[in-house]
Amino acid sequence: MTFDEIIAKRRSIRKFKKDPIKSEDIEAILDAGNKAPSAKNLQQWRFYVYQGEAKDKLVKFILDEFDKISNKPGVSKYARYSFQIMDEAPVAILVYSAQVMEHPARPDIQSVSAAIQNMLLKAQELGIGSLWICDVLYFDETIMKHVGAEMPLLAAISLGYANESPASRTRLTVDDVTTWFE
Length: 182
Known about the structure:
Helix content: 40-55%
Oligomer: single chain
Order of helices and strands: HHEHHEHEHEH
């Protein structure tokens, strides 16, 4: 598969098979994330990988904690669905920023986002489905305390073999999103 095909075929997967992912494939996905560009080469990303019983316990905690805040203003009722997807997928990765950069552009978040994108593309290349989940940010500090992380949680990723084939969604054209100056 060419790089352009990987980009074109990557989809957010919301239904997963229970089949486990080989450790070497997870490591290849993590390695792709670790090779992302980062502000000042600080490589801010940190990955906590959960599988098996550890993943089940983490997701149960997340679902229980979400249910406590689900009726608060500003909390999307659809967020619970993201956590049910995490429950279905065989792998959950919590993604943290090891160094907050006090800069208006938040290059630490941009760097970690680049790592996540690399991981999603590598997963696609390996035939593994993925979902980038930001709903963990509704109660990130609660999750951080639960897992013993002393750095900001930025996202979660679910990984597994797809049990669906979502169609491509309508995208804006390059002309729609680009302004040229000469």
